[in-house]
Design a protein that fits this description.
The protein contains 15 helices and 16 strands. The protein is an alpha/beta fold and 455 residues long.
Amino acid sequence: MAWPQNVGILGIELFFPSLYVDQTELEAFDGVSAGKYTIGLGQKRMGFCTDREDINSLCLTVVSNLLERHGIPPARIGRLEVGTETIIDKSKSVKSVLMQLFTPHGVTDLEGIDTTNACYGGTAALFNAVNWVESSSWNGRLALVVCGDIAVYAKGSARPTGGAGAVAMLVGPNAPLVLDRGLRAIYMKHAYDFYKPDLSSEYPTVDGKLSIQCYLNALDNCYQLYCEKARALQPNSPAVGLDAFDAVLFHTPFCKLVQKSLARIGVNDYFMTPPSRRLVRFPGFEKFEQLALEDTYFDKDVEKAFMSYYDDVFKAKTAKSLLIASQVGNMYTPSLYSGLISYLITGTAESLKGRKVALFSYGSGLASTLYSISVTNDVELLQPMLDKLSDVLPKLEKRQKVSPKEFSDILEIREQNNHKAPLEPSGAVDRLFPGTFFLKSIDQMHRRQYDRVPK
């Protein structure tokens, strides 16, 4: 079998909840200063789920929608990978629940299983799928990658950084979005920055300051290693740096952190520039000459200077990728890929062709990767992918706004019903989008039954 060429993402599908809370209204409800969530975090709206939706229903919905929209028969799928940190069973995988969509078609020869490590599981699942297509195990069929999570926090300062959603990606050869081979930079270590040790609760334990430091430290390490690998692959090419990318996308816990992260890459470029050329490239930055990179994580002068210096670069290369994150919130594993969708739907096939896109994926605990995607030069190959994303923006506007009081009450119900069995969920089915799978009931043996809103 010939080595498959241009392996990457053939199609991509997004699903988000039909309900949202306005962050400005949430500021007033929580009694915090105006702008704390909207300006300080960069968030506008936050999607959330009632007790009618769980991780299984989100993934059932997004997989069904992708197969139907792309006209893919289940038999064409040879590997199905799920990345999630929303665990509702310590043994049974979400993948096994998704088999309900394949088994009736006689499809049971389907590789893959769930991958878990905070927000990184979706990226690990994508790499597993790409590796499979490029391996001797590949049988010529396509891979399907599913990322889904429900991000909820206890009452307090972290609650406005929640969100929910799912992304499904079709992976195979001759793709319009090609993962660059040999250009993955990995950084992993042990840290207690964000974790979920209480298996009876949906809520995480978070060390906010440490989490931001871990995220930026992982970015530093991944970016430097990526540059090193890129130089090794093309030793005669110009120096690798931020200028090498047409777009830079990030995992988005909240939008403001992404703006700081783009500037952080600039900080790395500053320290990687030889001292003899540093002040030519970065005029006016003499006061940072004696600093070391590891001393700059919470240096407000450095942060402010580089965010200002790279503001135009942020607007050109990153800002458009935050469209969905600002409207839905942190989806955890799908977060980075909602950024990719945002980037795609704010461009045209003509403007996107041939672009080089950097993607930084981070999961607490911690696992991270910086890798890159090359967009095809073939507009006719790219256009169908964009056409199938044409309903994302209209659907964002079709959501129903919920008052902060009702939002808080709904999360209270989710908290009370967590792991309860038997259970008849109380959330209104008629508020869900057409085609949405929902939790119908949980019996006394914790077996979950699902139904689907008619399309």
